Amino acid sequence: MRLHVLHPDRRLPANPVDGPVHELRDAYGRVIRDLRVSLTDRCNFRCVYCMEPDVVFKRKMELLTDFEIIRVVRICQSLGVRRVRLTGGEPTVHPTLPELIGDLAALGLEDLSMTSNGSLVSEADLVALRDAGLRRITFSLDSLEQERFARLTRSTTTPERVLMSVRAAKRVGLDPVRINAVIVRGFNEDEVVDLAALARDLDADVRLIEYMPLDSGHRWSQDKLVSADEIIDRVSSVFPLVPVERERSSSPAARFRFADGAPGMFGVIASVTRPFCGACSRLRLSADGMVIPCLFSTSEYDLRSLIRAPATTDEQIAQFLAAATLRKQAGHAIHDANYRQPDRPMSAIGG
Ligand code: SAM
Ligand code: SF4
């Protein structure tokens, strides 16, 4: 089978995967256990580190249908994928989210979670998602100061609105509830302690993320990066931290508990300064049906055309997924002089 590689400058040799496929293993021996599924590239926010105001969204016909998503996830599961995270864009704008979650949950995955900006869901929505089979939820919240939050997200939503979602998710029993914040120098590095304090106040899992060069505006620069070391130093000078084991060896976050025994967990995702590529077990499916082996891939593989071709079998899809996995790169090369940012921003990859 030949992969349809977008970005012809990177056209790859013919697919070596023929015959039955039993797992998704890359050329470096890493086995895929986690699938990130982007449900849409649309969003009601335009976060400065993610999406420019003039972003052009895909047309509906370009996006995978629920039926197509479920088919791909089912095939991935048969190839060893255990955990699925739904993301976007903003996944809660997806019109049939509870039904889709219900169908995915019925596959019997080990874990089904979602990342959301938390601005659109009510408690009743969260009950519906939980009842459909969602296990865990992560909300993004980058600032607790209203004016700054508005500037960061280019929206009229307030931090309190997102916190309402966090509290509601806890009440309805989604566990653990996690809060992600991207730290960007000049925007919110002075809030890392206040954001970490949310973990203690809400008994939640707070993760601060290094700013990655994946924004559609190509605004990233080294001087806007706040390193994990700096984040940990700032937080531990106020709340002494005790390191705890990563959830799994493939988990991106270095985790800590609070030395004084306060509730909650604190973590840092150091994708830039301490890459965890060697233990990566992830594959990504974009909302428009491209398989993206790595956040930093500059090549992507057009699964949508294959799915929509008449009479495509599950085995052919499995072979395609295996071939795309074989093209997973060893790691990102952000620090190389000739590093090229992928054309697709985080919002269209599915962060
Ligand atoms: N809209 C949802 C949200 O914001 O949670 C889900 C999609 S968003 C692309 C997923 C995650 O990617 C969010 O936690 C967001 O903060 C993070 N993200 C987006 N752009 C990023 C960047 N340039 N560097 C680091 N993280 C980024
Ligand atoms: Fe939307 Fe999430 Fe990107 Fe912000 S980070 S613009 S909420 S997709």
What does this molecule look like?
The chain has 351 residues and is of the alpha/beta class. The protein has one domain (34-349): Aldolase class I (TIM Barrel, Alpha-Beta Barrel). The chain is 28% helix and 17% strand. The protein has 10 helices and 12 strands. The protein has a 12-stranded mixed β-sheet with strand order 7-8-9-6-5-4-3-2-1-10-11-12. Strand 7 (241-244) and strand 8 form a beta hairpin. Helix 1 (66-78) packs across helix 9, helix 2 runs parallel beside helix 3 and helix 3 packs across helix 5 (159-172). The longest helix has 14 residues, at 159-172. The protein is globular, with a radius of gyration of 20 Å. 46% of the residues are buried. Bound molecules: S-adenosylmethionine and iron/sulfur cluster (SF4).
Q: Which structural traits does this protein have?
A:
single chain, 351 residues, alpha/beta, TIM Barrel, 12-stranded mixed sheet, binds S-adenosylmethionine
Parts with pLDDT < 50 across at least 5 consecutive residues: 7-14
Oligomeric form of this entry? single chain
Mean pLDDT: 91
Looking at CATH, the homologous superfamily is: Aldolase class I
User: Could you give the count of β-strands?
Assistant: 12
Number of helices: 10
β content, as a range?
Answer: 15-25%
Broad structural category? alpha/beta
- What is the percent of helical residues? 25-40%
> Order of strands side by side in the largest beta sheet?
7-8-9-6-5-4-3-2-1-10-11-12
Q: What's the story with the biggest beta sheet?
A: 12 strands, mixed
* Gap between N and C termini: 29 Å
Name the ligand types.
S-adenosylmethionine, iron/sulfur cluster
CATH architecture descriptor: Alpha-Beta Barrel
The top-level CATH class is Alpha Beta
Count of the domains: 1
Instruction: Assign an overall shape.
Output: globular
CATH topology: TIM Barrel
Report Rg: 20 Å
SSE pattern, N- to C-terminal: EHEHEHEHHEHEHEEEEEEHHH
